[in-house]
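Q: what sequence does this backbone want?
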């Protein structure tokens, strides 16, 4: 029996099979996340979700009957309720997902490049065509981060979010320290483990984090951040001598994203931070992610879990699918434009660079040493914007410069 449930102008087809409700999906992509999703669908005790089609692209061969190169046929198939989009990059995915919603199909995606680039358009399409749009897998892999932000802000406005949201770079930092891997070896291992983006420079240079911060900002604060509103610094230039210098000072480097309501407005930043060994975020190992949120009444809440890789990401996709199947409503989200401001506090930085460039910081040096041809300096507390401007100038001279903000005490 087929029953048409009320999704206003378009129907989702539910089938009652042996007493269980059945949802038909089409997967877009057949990579790390899609294969893990297929495994989890097969393991699920109630066979409630059926994969009717898998969109692949040539020259990938059709290795099972569900595989197709024909997206139009997927869109035309009225039995397919949900498009599960798991490909890299914004543009092709946006074409697929926008067409899907216009065809009355709900969309579940793990694609943060697309969601961050087309966030308000995707929300508007879902509203217009009365379909569901779910994207929990886009941030922090298996941690229910976005759904927690969305739920909490309804009772208590969020004050800040921060944490570690890229499994690849956390894995690299952890294993450069523990196994003395080089940056290149760390990237290669993270790729093998299925943590890295198709283009791993998105992980290394922090663009993946920028996308995740933009999506988190929408769910936490209802704001639409644009990529050109905030600076991002990744791990480019980091070398073994830098790691040795951090250890000698009882510091551990982590790539931290933060978004907070300051006294003069909202501040956003993504950069490497040197944490004392006993800081909570310094304990985050391997590909784990840790999201810390603060609200006025709840205080601080930290969620730690698998942040990258097929199984945790597919788990988040499956959770979204089951919510659609169970007809859980999505909390309405509208995004407002906002202005960001600079952190006005004085900060200290570590800078690893070549001898010639180090001279730019002459007035600000608290400590300086040389190691293996690298000049390593620790600055005195200095106005944030002055230091950032000097670092940008120095990096133009030495692309291998690595800079990290120093956090003095564990918070
Ligand atoms: N891996 C992870 O830990 C996480 C990934 N994500 C996101 O999930 C998505 C998938 O990631 P992942 O599975 O790791 O990526 P993979 O690179 O492993 O797989 C991507 C798949 O998409 C296919 N594909 C690429 N472009 C197209 C296209 N235009 N049409 C049809 N198929 C296409 C690729 O096909 P082909 O083989 O032919 O290139 C491949 O099968 C990405 O958006 C990623 O950012 C999100 C959270 C975590
Ligand atoms: N490349 C990403 C994958 C998950 O979002 C990461 O390493 O975190």
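A:
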């Amino acid at each position: 029996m087929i029953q048409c449930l009320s999704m206003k102008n378009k129907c989702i087809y539910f089938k009652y099979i042996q007493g269980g409700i059945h949802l038909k999906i089409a997967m877009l992509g057949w990579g790390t996340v899609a294969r893990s999703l297929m495994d989890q669908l097969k393991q699920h005790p109630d066979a409630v979700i059926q994969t009717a089609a898998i969109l692949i692209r040539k020259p990938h061969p059709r290795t099972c009957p569900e595989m197709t190169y024909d997206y139009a046929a997927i869109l035309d198939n009225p039995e397919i309720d949900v498009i599960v989009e798991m490909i890299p990059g914004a543009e092709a995915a946006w074409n697929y997902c926008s067409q899907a919603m216009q065809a009355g199909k709900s969309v579940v995606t793990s694609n943060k490049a697309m969601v961050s680039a087309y966030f308000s358009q995707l929300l508007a399409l879902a509203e217009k065509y009365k379909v569901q749009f779910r994207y929990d897998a886009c941030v922090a892999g298996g941690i229910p981060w976005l759904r927690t932000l969305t739920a909490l802000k309804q009772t208590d406005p969020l004050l800040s979010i921060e944490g570690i949201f890229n499994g690849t770079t956390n894995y690299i930092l952890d294993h450069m320290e523990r196994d003395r891997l080089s940056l290149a070896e760390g990237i290669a291992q993270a790729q093998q483990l299925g943590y890295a983006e198709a283009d791993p420079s998105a992980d290394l240079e922090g663009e993946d984090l920028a996308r995740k911060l933009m999506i988190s900002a929408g769910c936490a604060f209802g704001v639409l951040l644009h990529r050109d509103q905030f600076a991002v610094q990744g791990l480019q230039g980091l070398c073994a001598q830098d790691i040795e210098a951090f250890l000698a000072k009882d510091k551990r480097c982590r790539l931290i994203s933060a978004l907070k309501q300051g006294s003069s407005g909202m501040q956003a930043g993504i950069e490497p931070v040197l944490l004392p060994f006993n800081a909570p975020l310094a304990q985050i190992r391997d590909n784990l992610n840790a999201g810390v949120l603060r609200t006025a009444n709840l205080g601080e809440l930290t969620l730690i879990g698998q942040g990258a890789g097929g199984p945790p990401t597919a788990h988040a996709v499956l959770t979204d699918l089951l919510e659609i199947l169970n007809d859980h409503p999505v909390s309405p989200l509208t995004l407002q434009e906002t202005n960001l401001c600079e952190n006005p506090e004085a900060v200290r930085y570590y800078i690893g660079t070549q001898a010639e460039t180090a001279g730019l910081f002459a007035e600000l040096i608290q400590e300086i040493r040389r190691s293996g041809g690298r000049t390593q300096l620790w600055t005195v507390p200095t106005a944030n914007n002055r230091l950032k401007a000097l670092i940008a100038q120095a990096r133009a001279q030495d692309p291998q410069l690595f800079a990290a903000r120093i956090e003095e005490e564990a918070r």
